Structure formats: structure tokens, C-alpha cells
């Protein structure tokens, strides 16, 4: 059985006599589910190199280590695809995702996804990991995508997301002129009962909070920075439409007054997708325990749209 590099914790003097389970859950922040999993393996939990039960008491200076078994994504076909790597270490792979590519294989769509390219990249580098994206980006959305290399890293960032401690910022080009240059949209979202694949603002929906700030105002559109408190499906697209400012290029959540306008026709020649880009992602790095931020610049299609909007302002 092979393992990833261990996570190490040295017990300080003030924690002499702590129960090992407490150290694992309160200091290494191991979830109950992951703890149940690793304690069953031969080298999953050790103290000073010796396998131990989690109910023992630790001593000052003890070296506590947890190890997770190496895993692979055997159901994902390796495929040589271009990847824009922003950062990679033993814990994480951070990519700048292109628009138009799906993150994970789905029924009937087994190749040409981010997962296929990542599995191939790891295979070529001799890295044994299972593909674990820690968040989602729509097919047409570009930007920063984080992929965890171990169950522990995935759990750590997922917990930060639940606690609203992850910074997710987007840039989007939307239609219309804003009266207020910044604000918050606090409107619940749920499925449209008549079109289950579409989301709508409805009082019976799930809580959804979106903050926005206008970066540049153009004659008929605007560049807007958005950051989220929640992560509902299509949240930005639904909320901006609700505000009366649908995303440029978004066919699902457009409004009639923008759909057939001459400006929309011109924008359509320059952009073949919704104008949404995840430009910044920040969280406490599970390996270093320090804040880390990753940024992806505007891709060429959105930069071209911005130049056109500025020229015709």
C-alpha cells in the first residue's frame, strides 16, 4: 500500500495530555469522515512512527502524522490537452480554465474535459492522484479552478467554503447602465418548475447573496466585479438578470430589450459565450496554513470585448 507524504504536527508543551483524537480534529482539522477512513489503514495515524489508537494521550514533543492512501481516477481517460497551470505543489493544482471546456466527464461526454487533461498531466509527471476539483465553473465560464490532490486538502477547502471563508471574485460584462455603482443582491434562487435546468429568483428558493461593484461603465454596458457569499447554480447570471443587467452573451438569462439590439449583434460577433470570468480565488492553503490567492487575467475573447466597448463608449 502506498501513501501520500504525511501531514505532521508536533505537540507543543501546552497540549501535553491531550487526546490524540482532539489533536487530529482541532489542530490538523481532520473531519470525522476522513478520520474514520484513515484510522483503518496501517500507517494512517502514527505517533513517533508507531501506529496508535485515537484515544491515547499525547506528550509534548510527540510527532503526530497522518497519511492517506494514494488514489487514481481509473474511470477518467488520460488525454493530452493544453492546460494553463497557474500553480502546482504537492497539495494543489491551480488552473486557468478556458471557456467552452467541461470540468468533469459526464454521461455521454467522456473526453475533452479538464479532468482528462489533468489525469494525463499527472501521468506524465509520475504523480498519483485522484481528480478532485474543489469547486465548479460552468462550461462557458473561464478562470481560476482549484483541484485538490488528496482527500484532506479537498476537505479543508470545502470546509472553508461552507464557512464562507473562501474569496471567489469574478469579472463580467453586462448590459445596461447602473444607477448605483455598487450593491448587494440578496434574493433566493431555485429551479424554474417549468424548466428544471433554469434557475429563477423565487421566495421559496435557497438563500443566495451576490455583491457587485462597477469597474467600468460604457455607453450600453458595464464591466462589473462580483464576489459571492453563496454558490448557487447560475447565481451570478440569475442575480444580474434579476437586477436588469444580464450578462453579455448569456442566451439563457438574457432580456428581450438586449437580445436583439444592434449592440448585442455586434457583441455576438466578438464573443461566443457568456461574458463571465473567475479572475481571483483565495483561501487558507491546507499545506502552509497561510492565505493564498490565485489570479487569472482576462482571456483574449473578453479582452477583445472590453477593447470594443471602450472604443464605442
TrEMBL record:
<keyword id="KW-0694">RNA-binding</keyword>
<comment type="function">
    <text>Responsible for synthesis of pseudouridine from uracil.</text>
</comment>
<dbReference type="InterPro" id="IPR050188">
    <property type="entry name" value="RluA_PseudoU_synthase"/>
</dbReference>
<dbReference type="Pfam" id="PF00849">
    <property type="entry name" value="PseudoU_synth_2"/>
</dbReference>
<keyword id="KW-0413">Isomerase</keyword>
<dbReference type="InterPro" id="IPR006145">
    <property type="entry name" value="PsdUridine_synth_RsuA/RluA"/>
</dbReference>
<comment type="similarity">
    <text>Belongs to the pseudouridine synthase RluA family.</text>
</comment>
<feature type="domain" description="Pseudouridine synthase RsuA/RluA-like">
    <location>
        <begin position="91"/>
        <end position="242"/>
    </location>
</feature>
<dbReference type="InterPro" id="IPR006225">
    <property type="entry name" value="PsdUridine_synth_RluC/D"/>
</dbReference>
<dbReference type="InterPro" id="IPR020103">
    <property type="entry name" value="PsdUridine_synth_cat_dom_sf"/>
</dbReference>
<protein>
    <recommendedName>
        <fullName>Pseudouridine synthase</fullName>
        <ecNumber>5.4.99.-</ecNumber>
    </recommendedName>
</protein>
